[in-house]
Amino acid sequence: MQVLQSTDFSYLDPSRGFDGGVNALYRLLYRQLVTKAPNDAKDPNAMVPDLAESLGKVSADGLTWTYKLKAGIKFDTGAPITSKDVKFGISRGWDPEIGIGAPYLKQLIDAPKGYQGPYRSGELRTIETPDDRTIVFHLKAPYPEFDAALSMPSGTPFPVGTGGGTSFIKDVVASGPYDLEKLTPGSLIQLKRNPHWDAKGDKVRKAYPDAWRFTIGVEGATIDERLIAGQGTDINVISGSVQTATLARLQTPQLKARTVKAPSTCLTYMGLNTTKKPLDDVKVRQAVNYAVDKSSVLNASGGTQLATVSNSLLPPSVSGHVDYDPYPSADNAGDVAKAKQLLTEAGHPNGFTMTLDIRAKDIDQRQGEAIQQALKRVGIEVKLNVIDASTYYETIGTPSQQHDAAITGWCPDWASSASTFLPPLFDGRHITAKGNQNLSQLDDNAVNAEIDRITALTDLAAANKAWGELDKKIMALAPFVPLNVANRIYLPGANVAGVIAPSGDVDYGIIGLKDPAKG
Q: Lowest-pLDDT range, 59-68, 144-153, 174-183, 408-417?
């Protein structure tokens, strides 16, 4: 299987990486106790056992979760995967340098104060391993969706004692169906079969291809040209969503038959840094929300085929979504008069200057320019700070390197609930020096308390309703400007099968070739 992409993956280490692109790669290399069902499942959002025999068994007080590992599971070295390896892999998430990825487990598990992972602090005693196949987690508070939290990349097991420092930057210890064969950073990743992976013990990954080749650093327009032409080995190619300029060319019967349109659960937004003046004033942030021309940003994003304007935080495909517009304007073009009024009330009648961080990608730069032009109408001068795409998320996730605002996106880690949407983005108690997800750095006591209340609800329907109401309360504080919800348009090669994306993202675990002899 061939994959073409413009941007390099963030990290091979699943304790460090936490973005949609690299999560797809992790599906091939790593396993967890629990994982998301495959995209072709009846309920692709469901959580299913992976390394564990079943979903977790929870105590009556909701504080203890117990799992039993399957027999016969192994690393690529041939060594058995034990409960101690699962515990060790998870405890790496507390390391301040390494654990910059998915934050959920270190927020939920009752680790001692000051614990900094196994390399610095030793064993994490609030994860027990009474035998090689049993693991017991002790939580700070009840969390009904702990199974889902364990499905994150940070739940990946590693042999005890491995992975210190930067050793997993260029190498891996695989537990999934593939292992790393070759790595040229920024250029090439090749995967080979993991001979110690047993298909009988993995009901999630079909692992059809014998090998994977990821070619990195190819321009988006070049990728689309190769996919349209479909010559030679390119019939076996998959890639990300096509470029905006390519859409008009996908109208022939042959290309239409190959095209896959997938509405996503992902919100594109502009985060406003509430620690920076004058954005520390809620009226200024509200003015920015009124001033942005979302229709123009939508056009810059590829138009209605590639995205839909969003006015709330939760996308329609995420449970808990409420359809409302806190900062309305005609045709989503912005309300200049209302924005100017709020700026005047805040003491900035002539506007101000701010710096907007954006990725070095065409679509991001077009979005940044649309915002720049819209805010200029109310006297706000926007300076665009372009950051290399491979380091962008790490940079904006480091508060000391953040500027006034950043355009980025967020996809929930499971769409059956808003619990992985609002808490990571707005819980002020989890602002970190590195790997920070709360880009607005909002730390509001009422918001934090409501997150705790909703998270503890065992009635998930009631919880989802409450998440929708919290969406409204947060948007009144205006820490974000919701821009749009993305659609993905894929054009897999003519010999590629299994490109199914019910929530926008493809599942590499079920993709294969129609005819292995071709290409």
A: 408-417
Is beta strand 64-68 parallel, antiparallel or unpaired with respect to 57-58? antiparallel
* Contact between residue 390 and residue 379 where contact means Cβ atoms under 8 Å apart: no
Closest CA to 423 of 399, 453, 402: 453
Q: Residue 130: what pLDDT? A: 98
In terms of DSSP bridges, do strands 211-216 and 2-5 run parallel, antiparallel, or are they unpaired? parallel
Q: Closest Cα partner for 363 from 483, 252, 264?
A: 483
Q: Are 1 and 212 in contact (CB under 8 A)?
A: yes
Contact 317, 264 (CB under 8 A): yes
Residue 314's contacts (CB-CB under 8 Å, 6 or more residues apart) are 267, 320, 321, 322, 418, 421, 422, 467, 468, 471
> Which tokens belong to 170?
């260029």
Non-local (6+) Cβ contacts of 449 within 8 A are: none
Q: What is the pTM for the complete model shown?
A: 0.77
CA distance 205 to 509: 4
What φ, ψ does residue 434 adopt, rounded to 5°?
A: -140, 155
**Do residues 200 and 229 lie in contact, with contact meaning Cβ atoms separated by under 8 Å?**
no
CA distances from 373 to 145, 292, 293, 367, 433 (A): 43, 9, 9, 10, 32
Q: Is the dihedral of CA 185, 191, 195, 201 positive or negative?
A: positive
Are 191 and 211 in contact by the 8 Å Cβ rule? The answer is yes
Residue 445 host element (H or E) = helix 445-455
Rounded Cα gap, residues 47 and 63, in angstroms:
20
Tokens 């019939």 label which residue? 235
* Dihedral sign computed on CA atoms, order 204, 209, 214, 218: negative
Cα 215 to Cα 73: distance, rounded to the nearest angstrom: 30
- Cα separation of 258 and 4, whole Å? 17
